[in-house]
Amino acid sequence: MLKEFKDFIAKGNVMDMAVGIIIGAAFTAIVKSMVDDLINPFISIFTGGIDFTNLFVVLGEGSFPSLAAAQEAGAAVFAYGSFIMAVINFLIVAFVVFMLVKSVNKAKAAAEEPKAEAEPEAPKGPTQEELLADIRDLLKARA
Hints:
2 domains, 5 helices
């Protein structure tokens, strides 16, 4: 059973998946930092610094100055502002990932083009008409 487990772990697919998960976690941190530290400040310039996070409705009694205060007090809140910010951040992250994937695919395509051009073309053989003419000439020569 231990040998089977070693064989399973040693397979390329499992190792590739593990590396992918580790790289994905690191990449998530990079993209999150890019969105939070570089892109969101520019967006706040155009929106006047509006932060939707503190938009909420208390589903009960009480009045609270912020979402954090309402949550700390244990009040039931409908935090639609946090949802709006999550959607905006998702769209930004999705766009950044799209642009990165697009540039990687473009770089891959550019790297593969010279290989395709470097392959020599296969020599072209005679056409069907040329073969038939040769057969005809051979038959005439035998007769």
